[in-house]
Design goal:
15 strands; six-stranded mixed beta sheet; Chloramphenicol Acetyltransferase; about 35% helix; alpha+beta
């Protein structure tokens, strides 16, 4: 049994029925015509279940669940679930005709709007059959407390194979041994230990935050009219303009998926001397500009996007290890190249600022402080009250949306004779911000997923279509 880190625990406390805190992946497989294997006796679902059963020891988070004392005073812990049953986490579905992307997105939106059952390990997967062209899809959702987006993407490399021939998975070196359920006396003793240690841990977190703030002030470059290389401004806390997609959430979710040639994105990057992430932000900016023009008009100020940055070190197995950079999206500009170059300039500055200010542990230290000046019962109650009273409608947004760029599998992957063609990532929306955009590179495709609160973002498919269109526009500028 292991304690949940404070940053991971924050993902648990933040969850409400209006704001499920899981990430999703939509993996689409195309039946392979190049394999000469014999007809299989098992169905696709039975084969999928067999793969999970053989490899689940390689994904330890999939057999762990949360335990916490009945009064929610002590901290939560991960336990090797003594009641684990793989059949509680795998399901199958036949998509209604005609089995296109529209029908798939409708199912994924419904699936995304339901919180995971905390009495079980925090993940679920559905094998979706009946897609056009004989394709299948595996739709997985994993709670953010269990793993961040980068770790969730790595799960595909565990479950899938680098060739059509598959691979042998070595059995675990040691048998899996579930934990015993903690007793009430154990919970009581843990609550006492937790409460006694809170003042010290709160002081340590506060000291780290203060030290980081001092380091950031010392690292600020001196602004000068003669030098602009290192001159930059951080977006003020409440600079994000109001938009139709900023407000209190409902439980309803809509999803839009699209993919573009990854080589086109890299060609744009090379031609203009930017990064892949800059191209992604520029395409999102253009898409949001078009959507806003159709839904009430452009705000007077640039949008503010929160861009997660992984700070995980090689070999580190902690749950969430992320920081964030806040970036302006110049939606007032109507020139695609001008938007791209403006974003490149700003992200370069913001990354320098983030590095100089030691921003890698900001979220972790803040979570440590908050969790040690309160108890889980109070935290969850306050967040639930904020959500149920729709207070996000009355508070200016800290940011307009989240845009994430996750590295996906760089090589072709297969399962049961089928090839992975697309892997669409989807992140959770946050109170006050009803839109989350995540992209992932998968061999030769860049897959775009938009998760939206249905009431705040009508016609979310327009945002996905606009993203693909802007990639085409930027490509035409270099031809």
């Amino acid at each position: 049994m292991n304690p949940v880190s404070y940053l991971d625990a924050a993902m648990l406390y933040a969850e409400t029925p209006e704001m499920p805190m899981h990430t999703l992946g939509v993996l689409i497989f195309e039946p392979g015509s190049e394999t000469g294997t014999e007809p299989r006796e098992l169905s696709p679902f039975e084969l999928t279940r067999q793969i999970y059963a053989e490899r689940i020891h390689l994904i330890p988070q999939f057999r762990r669940r949360i335990v916490q004392g009945p009064l929610q005073i002590g901290d939560p812990h991960w336990i090797e679930d003594p009641a684990f049953d793989l059949d509680n986490h795998l399901a199958r579905l036949t998509l209604r005709p005609p089995g296109g992307m529209r029908e798939l997105c409708e199912f994924v939106g419904e699936f995304a709007g339901v919180c995971l059952d905390r009495s079980r390990p925090l993940w679920k997967a559905v094998l979706v059959e009946g897609l056009e062209g004989g394709k299948t899809a595996l739709v997985m959702k994993i709670h953010h407390a269990a793993m961040d987006g980068g770790q969730a993407a790595a799960v595909a490399g565990v479950l899938l194979d680098p060739s059509l021939d598959g691979r042998m998975t070595p059995p675990p070196k040691e048998p899996w041994i579930p934990d015993r359920e903690p007793s009430l006396p154990w919970f009581a003793a843990d609550a006492v230990r937790t409460l006694m240690g809170k003042p010290r841990r709160a002081a340590e977190a506060a000291t780290k935050i203060a030290s980081a703030a001092r380091a950031k002030r010392r690292s600020q470059p001196v602004q000068s009219a003669d030098t602009d290389t290192d001159t930059f401004e951080k977006p003020p806390l409440f600079e994000a303009p109001p938009t139709p997609f900023n407000g209190a959430l409902t439980p309803n979710r809509s999803v839009a998926l699209v993919d573009v040639p990854f080589e086109d994105v890299k060609a744009i990057k090379r031609a203009f001397g930017t990064t892949v992430n800059d191209v992604v932000l520029a395409a999102c900016c253009a898409s949001l500009r078009s959507w806003l023009q159709t839904h009430g008009g452009l705000p007077e100020r640039p949008l503010v996007a929160t861009v997660p940055v992984s700070v995980r070190h090689d070999g580190e197995q902690a749950g969430n290890r992320v920081s964030v950079i806040r970036t302006h999206l110049p939606i007032q500009s109507d020139d695609p190249v001008e938007r791209l170059m403006a974003l490149n300039e700003e992200t370069t500055r913001q990354k320098k600022r983030h590095k100089r200010g030691g921003g890698g542990d900001v979220l972790k230290n803040f979570a440590d402080l908050v969790n040690n000046v309160t108890v889980p019962l109070l935290t969850t109650h306050l967040i639930g009250l904020y959500s149920s009273r729709h207070l996000a409608d009355r508070v200016p947004p800290l940011w307009n949306l989240i845009i994430s760029n996750v590295i996906g599998p760089p090589i072709p992957l297969y399962t049961t004779g089928a090839r992975l063609t697309q892997l669409f990532p989807l992140g959770p929306v946050q109170q006050g911000s009803g839109l989350d955009i995540t992209v992932m590179s998968v061999v030769d495709r860049l897959c775009f997923g938009a998760m939206a609160c249905t009431e705040l973002v009508p016609d979310v498919q327009m945002i996905a279509t606009g993203f693909a269109r802007e990639i085409e526009v930027l490509k035409e500028r270099i031809e």
